[in-house]
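S., here's the first fold you wanted:
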Amino acid sequence: MRILHISSVYPPHVIGGAEKVVEMLAEAQVARGHEVAAAYLTRAPEAAGTRHGVTVLPQASRNLVWMEDVFRQPRALRTANKLGQFVNYRAASDFARAIAAFRPDIVHTHSMVELPPMIWAEAARRGARTVHTLHDYDLLCSRASLFRDGRSCDALHASCRVASQWKRRFARDIDAVAAVSAPVLAEHRRFGVFADLPDDRARVIWNAVQDRGPPPAKPARDGDFTFGFLGRLVPEKGIAPLIAACRMLPPSGWRLLVAGRAQEGDAAYRAMAHDLPVTFLGFTDPRAFLDTIDILVVPSIWREPFGLTVVEAFAQNVPVIGSRLGAIGDLVGTVGDDWLVEPDDPAALAARMRQAMTAGREALPPPAAFAPVLDAVRLDRMVDGYDDLYAHVAARDRAA
């Protein structure tokens, strides 16, 4: 089968987790004998070529501002850039030419935050079947997060409704959709997106996580009970409620290590944690960081589409206290409901952290507790899921 992946960016240029997943999937499909290509945006023109067996078709960005420079621009320019992305017919034409040149059976689109939705129409016009993966909430929310003014959105704001209606116009050309978690698919259907697609064409396929092999044996730990936070220091990740919860813990016997950067600096969070045993480490290698903590805390207050940090923790036998929200609830809940707390509830979070301290390290779950999640995120499972979905779409097309 000839498969063309389309994503906002592609490795070696990486901004988030989606492009890493696309790369893993594409290269695994090559190993299975498929002919695979990836088309994506670049800051400047680049030549086509191959990367680890995948044909790469870079397309120079035609947006007003390159994606990594957006936050440094005035608000008016950011708005103009976003509006321009929605109707960027020149970009759609670029990707149409890539589709025509590669002649795929399947066009598999991923993160479309920087790409115009007309690409779906271009794929249909050229006879390809289209599968789209919901890595985020881009089809519903102009920020792709369903998060605004410090809280998750239960309804769409006016600007998001307009943007969503425009994208839905072209999303009709999508033949099948895969969501990286059940909550992501449920949110789209709640707002009427893909609500009419039958379940055999609207599936949940969890992201794979690169297998790093068994974690090294940890030495016996003693001293203060160590909690950890790993991720971007942004409001939706719940760092403020976590620090507030720490204010309710005993004055000694614990510490919190915070690994991650803030887009606009971490001074505000450092001020919140003044006089607490909280250490800000900045960017830190996740695997090395997880070796230093007893429990990872994932206190997100937005509907995380997927929980890569949770999976990384489980892979190193580190339990997680997580929010009962979005994909975090699905992943952490496999270990036990008692590891979940209500989002944005510092008192409940503090109570659970105190409970863990009181029970001690000997009460932490054994490695077997994490096996169901780690088994579900194996690379072969993800590739099997997409192979089956592609085959289903192709068989349906032949029947038509």
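And the second, which I think is the more interesting of the pair:
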Amino acid sequence: MTETQDEQPLVRTGHARGVTTLTLDSPHNRNALSARLVAELHTALRTAAEDDTVRAVLLTHTGNTFCAGADLREGSGTPEDLAALLRAVVELPKPVIGRTTGHVRAGGTGLLGACDISVAGPGATFAFTEARIGVAPAVISLPLLPRLEPRAAARYYLTGERFDAAEAARIGLVTLAGEDPDALLAPVLDGLRRGSPQGLAASKRLVTREVLAGFDRDTGNLAELSARLFASEEAREGMTAFLERRDPAWVQ
């Protein structure tokens, strides 16, 4: 008996040689952060954290989109839900490695930015599109702003311009970019497999300390800002225009 779309997992799990691979597999909405996908990813991360055989988690995707951000058609849960997911990636006691060969938009950039190490292939493109629909990259700023080059963050947050993998690496959104992301990943994964559980966990705490301090300090305010913007008339116009494939009313 075949699975229906509602029964099929949106996050598929595999495991080989100490690395758990979590694959976003929701092609009908370009791996958008629906409430169900967020819940499944949370569960998969907790399972990996509790498995003593896991040295690292590899987060990747099917299709030509890593993650399109908020699910404007089906709903994405609350800003607090997104903040909790991003924090779960940052504070997981195992390193999380992101791998993308496709498009990364809005909230998807936050998910990729929360990873400890990330690799982008030649087909990857990136954009912070929130301002174009009347909102802002509020919650995703928690893992992103401590890691992005400030002038680049200002440019791309404000303009919504699309940029490529090489630029993503230059500004600190990803760690490595190249023609063969799996070749780039090989020495990274080999190094992680050689790490002890205690050594990896303690080392990760050192490099994420300031990011987690930002979560402690700013999550409430940024979640409130995000909720207020999404509920505004301007955002409703922006999201409607996006879904109708037209310019919003404010475009000159």
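Why I say that: The longest helix spans residues 197-230. The radius of gyration is 18 Å.

Talk tomorrow,
H.
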